[in-house]
């Protein structure tokens, strides 16, 4: 299991290949990559993400460990960036490996729902109309109720 919180961009292809290579005991590898999405009308200049070093890694590690145990995963990977990113840049990646696809998909969705709603990151959008913090969305919180 690996959890990485970093400012610099990551190479999705290289990370996915490194995670999947040599998996003779796993029948499924699921990957997901989140991308900074532009605002309606193309008004987003940048997304800025802040976090508390140490606290963030500890929280992400705990949730990844929960996913590994809950779905009997062979492995899990969480990469999340912080700092200033432009629309189209990769912001995060989740990968899970399990003997069967159902567990790999469920664990990946669980991790993504957690990252979207509960991970200790704070997002600020910088656009043509100014800057503002991104508020939590009810649908993101509701997604956690299925877990």
Major sheet: size, sense and barrel closure?
A: 4 strands, mixed
Mean pLDDT: 95
CATH superfamily: Molybdopterin biosynthesis MoaE subunit
Overall number of structural domains: 1
Highest-level CATH class: Alpha Beta
Can you tell me the CATH topology?
Answer: Aldehyde Oxidoreductase, domain 3
End-to-end separation: 21 Å
Supply the number of helical segments. 4
Structural class: alpha+beta
Order of helices and strands: EHEEHEEEHEEH
Q: Please state the overall shape, judged from the principal axes of the Cα atoms.
A: globular
Question: pLDDT below 50 for ≥5 consecutive residues: which ranges?
Answer: none
Number of separate strands: 8
The amount of helix comes to 25-40%
Looking at the overall shape, the CATH architecture is: Alpha-Beta Complex
Q: Any idea what the radius of gyration is? A: 16 Å
How much strand? 25-35%
Identify the notable features of this structure and list them briefly.
33% helix, 4 helices, 147 residues, Aldehyde Oxidoreductase, domain 3, 8 strands, globular, four-stranded mixed beta sheet, four-stranded antiparallel beta sheet, 35% strand, alpha+beta
